[in-house]
Design goal:
Length: 365
């Protein structure tokens, strides 16, 4: 198995195209063609984590946070990032990161797992993402319709929310005129032809548009398939920032705080006081204070995230319980996602959870 096989397995769940503009997800260091011995899973790629990988015989590190966010002008070991890069390269250890692309997917995403830890039900994206969908349109004779629709759906098109194989088709008249050099079987050169055809439309994520069209072309009866890929601004129900769901039963604020502490093994919680019971909960792993207004608009009783600034807590007073549980604590379950994705594709491969704590924040009790 090669590095690229692991990358492809993770990106089948969280395509790199779903990352935010500032991010740097993907293969950070290494050759995608390198054979993988063993894999180490971590939240942060640090020099200590690379040391652990060396000790365990792992030559691929899969992390949530990218090792490199900005361009490095020099690599001479003056800081932890540079030392980590040098040590990884010297020891032929590849480093891969799935960050905001994994944050932004609902299914098998960071925030879905976060919500599941709290026992939330009816989990949905809090702030849906737009500009990640296209409409694929193609034309076919009637006798090839069902075959091509099967190809269309098998290639990944036609998903809307909890429904699959969604499409629309209508009949019309197609015209074409064979030019010099065209297939003589389709008609006489220079004479316009008319045929009854079916126009088929379906929604698809933009990152698979080309592979869908390629699959359709292979199965299409025409020498030249007429098609369109049209960007649309619809919001994708399964892609976006944060999630929102409901507890099985309403909890008193104190009981909700205990649920957070026990479910996520927290040492400390910063929060605003709330008098109402907690039923509807919004959350976002990592730095999620930018979603506090979305959480309030959604009528959430509580919003759980991390890295909240002092003055941002004021926005929630009298509206919801605003909880900051810590960045590391809100995302550490990401390692479970990596493990499940890799084991599902490669069940007999050695995958290790990092034993090195990379949390830079400590609490004095």
């Amino acid at each position: 198995m090669k590095v690229k096989d692991i990358c492809n397995a993770i990106e089948s769940i969280a395509p790199v195209s779903y990352q935010e503009d500032y991010d740097n997800a993907g293969l950070i260091i290494g050759n995608p063609q390198q054979e993988v011995t063993q894999i180490l899973l971590c939240l942060d790629s640090t020099e200590a984590v690379v040391d652990e990988a060396i000790a365990k015989g792992c030559n691929l590190i899969v992390a949530h946070h990218p090792l490199i966010f900005k361009g490095l002008k020099k690599i001479n070991g003056k800081n932890d990032v540079e030392r980590t890069v040098i040590k990884a390269i010297e020891n032929k250890i590849a480093i891969y990161a799935a960050h905001t692309n994994l944050d932004n997917v609902l299914h098998m995403g960071v925030n879905q797992r976060f919500a599941q830890k709290l026992g939330l039900k009816n989990i949905q994206i809090l702030e849906e993402k737009s500009d990640v969908l296209v409409k694929i349109v193609f034309y076919t004779p009637l006798d090839s319709l069902e075959k091509l629709k099967t190809i269309l759906f098998d290639a990944g098109a036609g998903h809307i929310g909890q429904y699959s194989e969604c499409s629309f088709a209508n009949e019309g008249t197609g015209t074409f005129k064979p030019e010099q050099g065209s297939n003589p079987q389709v008609g006489k050169v220079g004479v316009r032809q008319e045929h009854n055809e079916i126009k088929v439309e379906a929604i698809a994520p933009s990152f698979i548009a080309n592979q869908v069209v390629s699959a359709l072309k292979q199965g299409h009866p025409y020498e030249e398939m007429a098609y369109e890929i049209i960007p649309i601004s619809n919001f994708n129900q399964g892609i976006g920032a944060g999630v929102i769901g409901e507890l099985e039963n309403s909890l008193k604020p104190s009981d909700f705080l205990n649920l957070l502490k026990n479910s996520l093994k927290l040492e400390v919680i910063k929060y605003t006081v709330s008098e109402k019971e907690i039923k509807k909960v919004a959350l976002c792993g990592g730095s999620g204070s930018f979603l506090r207004n979305s959480a309030m608009r959604s009528k959430a009783d509580a919003y759980v995230t991390s890295d909240v600034k002092y003055h941002e807590f004021f926005d929630a007073i009298g509206t919801l319980m605003f909880c900051d549980i810590g960045h590391y604590e809100s995302e550490i379950s990401t390692l479970e996602l990596f493990y499940e994705v890799i084991q599902d594709k490669f069940p007999n491969f050695a995958v290790h959870f990092c034993e090195t704590s990379t949390n830079p924040i400590h609490y004095h009790k």
